[in-house]
Amino acid sequence: MKIPFRIGVGSWIVLLSYFVYEPFAIRASIAPYSYLSQPMSDLGITECGVGTYPWADYFICSPHAPIVNSLFLLTGIVLLIGLWALKERLKLSRIGKAGFVFLFLFAVGFSFSVIPANVSFEWHTYPALVMFVVAPALFCISVKLNKGKRLTMISAGLLTMIKVAIMAVAFLPIEWGGLLQRLFYFVFYCWGLGMMVRLKGK
Q1: Residue 186 and residue 98: Cα distance in Å, rounded?
Q2: Rounded to an integer, what distance in angstroms lies between the CA atom of residue 34 and that of residue 182?
Q3: Buried b (16+ CB within 10 A) or exposed e, 130-165
Q4: Structural element, H or E, at residue 49
Q5: What is the C-alpha separation between 126 and 115, in angstroms, rounded?
Q6: Are 145 and 92 in contact (CB under 8 A)?
Q7: Are 81 and 8 in contact (CB under 8 A)?
Q8: Each residue's pLDDT tens digit, 8-50
Q9: Residue 3 gets which letter from DSSP?
Q10: Can you tell me the distance from the alpha carbon of 96 to that of 143, in angstroms, rounded to the nearest whole number?
Q11: Which of 79, 60, 181 has the alpha carbon at shortest distance from 132?
Q12: Distance between CA atoms of 49 and 61, rounded to whole angstroms?
């Protein structure tokens, strides 16, 4: 059964709505929180303290952790729906279909973010690293694409630059990791919503 257009569009809107909620979780944080330097997952840490997980040599205390972790799980599920709605409406080459396989793996990997880093750093972190295949996947999808080719190429280019910046930040004294992570997801979700709008009627 084909996913209705409204549900497809709604899925990507729900994904973007996380950024509307996040300021409330940040405001409720008992510990100082920087969206520029701290990852989104810090808001899902279920205990208060310093060193709650490897690399966290600073104080974390997020009262909204249960809500944030629930949203991480919801994001993985809704992302799968949104991606499937897109795939159903696109005429893809073989390499384009392979690109969507990687995007589905990314959605599954993101779902593991529901496991707080302080509970299992490995299960929280390693599956999410699949995010680095997103840009190449979009380049693959753009091959022989009719509608949305330019949007897909531009989004893939932006995501590639963000990915390179994220890797560079690890070696530079620039604490913008949190901002870059948010930009990555924001650009990707905007791509999905933009593609659904372009494919209206299909």
Answers
A1: 23
A2: 12
A3: bbebbbebbbbbbeebeebeebbeebbebbbebbeb
A4: strand 49-50
A5: 11
A6: yes
A7: yes
A8: 999 999 999 999 999 999 999 999 999 999 999 999 999 999 9
A9: P
A10: 6
A11: 181
A12: 7
- Distance, CA of 136 to CA of 140 (rounded, Å): 6
**Residue 1 is encoded by which pair of tokens?**
């059964």
Kindly state the tokens that stand for 169: 């930040």
Q: How far is CA 175 from CA 162, 167, 179, in A?
A: 14, 12, 9
Residue whose entry in the numeric block shows the structure tokens 């809500």: 67
> Alpha-carbon distance 81 to 97, whole Å?
16
pLDDT above 90 as % of the chain: 83
Spatial distance between the Cα atoms of 15 and 83, rounded to a whole number of angstroms? 12
Does the pTM surpass 0.85? The reply is: yes
Which is more confident, 173 or 123? 123
Angstrom CA distances, 161 to 56, 128, 165, 177, stand at 26, 18, 6, 13
Task: Say how far apart CA 192 and CA 82 lie, in whole Å.
Answer: 7
**Where do the H-state alpha helices sit in the chain?**
5-16, 18-28, 65-89, 94-111, 121-125, 134-142, 149-169, 177-198
Sign of CA dihedral 110, 142, 17, 39: positive
